[in-house]
Amino acid sequence: MAVEEKSIFEELAPYAKMVVVPGVTVGNLTYSNQQDLYSTAVFNAAAGVVAANTTMQFYQGALGESAIQQGYAGGTLSLAQTNSKFSKGQAPANQVYIATHAGFVVTTIGDRDLSVLSQESLLQQQSSIAAAGSLCDLYSVSQNFSWDLTIGAGITRTIGTLSEYTFPGSFAVTDEGVSAGAPATASISSQNGSPCADMKRLQVPLVFPPLVKVQITAQNGSPFALIGAQNVQIQMVLRGYLMTMPVG
Description:
Elements: H1 3-12, E1 19-21, E2 24-25, E3 30-44, E4 49-50, E5 55-58, E6 95-108, H2 119-125, H3 137-144, E7 146-151, E8 157-161, H4 162-165, E9 170-177, E10 185-192, E11 200-208, E12 214-219, E13 224-225, E14 231-244
Antiparallel strand pairs: 1-2, 3-14, 4-13, 5-12, 6-11, 6-14, 7-8, 7-12, 9-10
């Protein structure tokens, strides 16, 4: 047995009898490849305040589709935002994606209109909120937003806060600079994790069944303030396996 096959077997074996669609279980599926699936959404915190019940939708827009449904002001989704080809969160008729781990990366972006995205904004996209000038914002966003999962017409389940799934942890580093001739010092605020933190294993695998809409939403409750940049961008990353349905 190949190493990859053994790894897949060990990972998914406990869920072999989990029903994907009526008559088909995880154990009936055929392995295609192992991959990460990611989707990015953005919201604007007007005047540095995140409004109550701000909602972000993940995996609703596929690669090459309009970015508006992911919260952007315009443009189309490129590989910088998503690698998902599941339009409206639906896998094609012959495919199933099974995620075993999940994580969120919180960043900032200078321009929400991807059609005119500048190089400066692309650089900002790679920086954490903390690097934009606030040690608190990364922690605030990840603690105040929780994410929900709805598969088809099923019950919506709240999985947890982004903080529980933020990787590599809600941490921040700032350079205090030079004061009164003293040498520059760097202070580290490790608020919820570390640079070595990995994605969190899901208690139950997240399944994208064929032709069934999967909705993943992140939402806050009460409004809260941000110190740094206004355009907050969040990427959800799923780690798992692309499988194919049985033939016949």
